[in-house]
């Protein structure tokens, strides 16, 4: 980067951290969906996304990686950092001046943005790079629109963890949604800690509440929710108790704000590889499938394999998801397990119900048959 002095302010011209070449300002994709970040590409093959807050780097990384993979989410979820791609971050990027501002302030503005770069290794880039380049060529310049000045909601005192626990236990969600509307972000932390409860019904209620509260907070400020999603995904590096309910919670958060957090679906998908976590990952995907099936229809080929999984919970949850996806190709596999008697617990309407694997398979077949009579819904997996 080249330092440029303007009066007393020192800024740096923006260049690709991989090859050192100057790069263009990130742009909106013409194929953009709500919540997606502006993006760009370098001639060396690197793709980058722009996070205006600098606190939503998890989403920035996922969007850059998926874009580099020509929007192939399944491919992106199978790649490993270091082995298949490299990543770098340029912090303190000012989108209005197109400079890096090390001091964090420029022309009276606070600068906190970040550019997240991903460059696929050559053998993978040869397959996907041209498609990603075409997509970026169809982009248009990002207009400079200053954020509207909002009148902040009148905040009441923050809810305590004990109050949150009592409200969830009583299945009283409205006070929590009111706190979220006032941007009481401590509610997110309290709910996250309550995921460690050994009471399964209570834990299911926490995950559902977390999804609804997150949607309200994200409507004003998605950054803390994105950080929470990243923490939930990373929780599996620690003790087993710390990740109870994490994948189901991720599914609820994505399902309640799919336009903003749909980029985290591949994170859920990658946990399908772990036999111990597979039932929770399937539940998380299924939660999204109930409200936005087109976003997870691409997971069907992998899910079909789990109808014969040795874990009955995985089989039952998979049948439930495939039914919600109206996956006609699942008919033979569902018919094969329609007589299984193992019981699976499901959370519905604030309580836990028990169904056999066979019942879930039969319901899925009925759902597929019913939906096959309707006009087919096209998948909205990114082009």
From TrEMBL:
Organism per entry: Desulforudis audaxviator (strain MP104C)
InterPro entries recorded: ARM-like, ARM-type_fold, DVU0298-like
Classification via NCBIfam families: DVU0298_fam
Record lineage: Bacteria, Bacillati, Bacillota, Clostridia, Thermoanaerobacterales
The protein's name: HEAT domain containing protein
Pfam families per the UniProt record, alphabetical: HEAT_EZ
Record SUPFAM superfamilies: ARM repeat
